[in-house]
Specification:
Two copies of one chain form a homodimer.
Chain A (H helix, E strand, L loop, with lengths): L3 E5 L3 H12 L3 E5 L4 H7 L1 E5 L4 E3 L2 E3 L2 H4 L4 E4 L9 H4 L9 E4 L6 H9 L4 E14 L2 E14 L6 H12 L4 E4 L2 H21 L4 H6 L14 H6 L1 H20 L7 H11 L7 H7 L6 H14 L5 H13 L4
Parallel strand pairs in A: 1-2, 1-6, 2-5, 3-9, 6-7, 7-8, 9-10
Antiparallel strand pairs in A: 3-4, 8-9
Helix pairs in contact in A: 7-10, 7-12, 7-14, 13-14
């Protein structure tokens, strides 16, 4: 029997990486809800800059149909983490590796609370994806994954899983410091996922942290628009500095130059719409907890002030569909 | 950094599987002695029924040049196991997976005595290989590997490593009962490795367990010759029954039909010369401990009589170069 993999949350993220592993011949089970009929019938198609392909994975509606796995990949939106206790236990025994591919902070901790800390991993995904429709995912750019163990250095198993990702065509590295890697990724996510949506409330609202309920909303701003306007660009940089400052206060040692590197990298992305913008425009709840509130909470707990982040969260939670 | 692999004992076995992993892009370090110059200069060539290939692995003469690894594959002859304490510690830390690909019983135990039992694995190799000359290995047939954890069921890491072997072109399964798998393989190895060599002392000697030192030696018998002569064939079957009986006494539940299956499988091998015959004809020490003495010791300890095996060992140790 080969390595048995389950993908929970087969949106763009889980679907894409799960499909790559399935294409390389791994035994991958997809836990599906709305896309079940379509993927059962016609498989999962990936329209990718690296070449299109289609897989016919094993599909399930309930985790009990899949049973215990060696590796569970979690691609759910973090707004659906409340479903962990229902979805995951049938897939997990005391040996199962549980890897969250999700955005932001706190996901590994929620998994550790359910299953203990020993077999929890995190994978940070640097990838531009869209779910076009049921059964079709578009891969626009990038794809790199950085993997690590929860609260401890890399083990041989971590590198073995990373090799399997690589063998399936995904550039994949491992990190001995998953927490630091999360903060490093937030240097990009906080400004571009956050400001991109908050921009709909207008610059004054974002700067002041005040917004009148019911006021008309403008447009979200993709990455290039945020960088083109000096006022927004300044906010991007200030937020990056706050995130870097908080990370360093927490002991994560992220150099100040990380801000410039992210700006440079983002210039090459064109008009990219971060996942939060897509969620917002589709009227779906935003990943406020993992991307914004948990970083703020940790910064506060470490005694580091992040006023721009605090104001951003005020606006995001007012304009988000969750209310 | 990818999965860092060391191959210790780069004869036919270690060289073949290490080369396959290296060919798939894994970071494989070969610890070499006599073949160092050749492999450094021209790489390692595999002339295989599945297609020829050549790799240029990282070569080292001393384990210190390689340093700590994620996975150490051991392909040494078991007659060289006394070198474990010198060769292995520089490659192993508290996380390193140490997998013996060697023949017979007792190898995992020797590794566990050095490094503790938690990260020891065994891989049983069903493959026909010859080392033709330094830097050239001939792969004649088969290749399957059965992997397991020492003294416990398969873990996700076991399946992940097995997947990497598969991705490199090696059919690979995992077993929850490595000890049983070893005994199952001995059902073949004991008669064909043992009788094939002992035949040089003559039928009467093998049956009686008595041989006069200095008496002239005849030829070894490859698999087809052992099966073609009814007297030898009967001894093959009796030895198989002893091994199966001992295994069952030890609780390993090997069905009696295993003997017939092995006979059938061997008929398809043609005139195959098991590794012990090659060792004997080259004047090298035989793997008496792992293939014969340790099985006998375990059978005795379980109170199961194996007179054919005992007589076989008497002859083998008298005619073997070790004396």
């Amino acid at each position: 029997m080969g390595l048995k993999v389950a993908v929970v949350g087969c949106g763009a993220l889980g679907g894409f990486y799960g499909a790559r592993l399935a294409q390389r011949g791994l035994q991958v089970h997809f836990l599906l809800r709305s896309d079940y009929e379509t993927v059962c019938r016609q498989g999962l198609a990936i329209s990718s800059v690296d070449g299109d392909f289609r897989v016919r994975p094993q599909c399930a509606r309930q985790p009990e149909e899949i049973g215990r796995c060696d590796l569970v990949l979690i691609g759910l939106k973090t707004t659906a983490n409340y479903q962990f206790p229902r979805l995951l236990p049938p897939l997990v025994d005391e040996r199962t590796l549980v890897m969250t591919l999700q955005n932001g902070l706190g996901n590994e901790e929620q998994l550790a609370a359910l299953f203990g800390p020993d077999n929890i991993l995190g994978g940070l995904c640097f990838v531009c994806l869209n779910r076009v429709r049921p059964g079709l995912i578009r891969h626009l750019a990038h794809g790199r994954v950085v993997m690590g163990e929860f609260q401890r250095p890399v083990l041989p198993r971590t590198r073995a899983v990373a090799e399997l990702f690589r063998q399936s065509g995904t550039p994949c590295e491992t990190t001995d410091d998953l927490a630091r890697a999360h903060w490093e990724k937030l240097v990009w996510n906080v400004p571009f996922n956050g400001l991109g949506v908050a921009a709909a409330a207008g610059y004054e609202a974002v700067v002041s942290g005040r917004w009148t309920a019911g006021a008309p909303l403008g447009a979200c701003l993709p990455t290039d628009a945020l960088l083109a306007d000096p006022r927004w660009r300044e906010l991007v940089i200030e937020l990056m500095r706050e995130v870097i400052g908080a990370a360093n206060q927490l002991g994560h040692k992220i150099p100040a130059a990380c801000a410039d590197e992210n700006l440079e990298r983002t210039r090459n992305m064109g008009a990219y719409r971060a996942s939060t913008l897509v969620d917002f425009e589709r009227g779906q709840p935003l990943e406020l907890d993992s991307l914004f509130r948990e970083p703020l909470r940790q910064a506060k707990a470490a005694g580091f002030a992040t006023p721009r982040l605090a104001a951003l969260i005020e606006i995001l939670q007012r304009i988000s569909p969750q209310g």
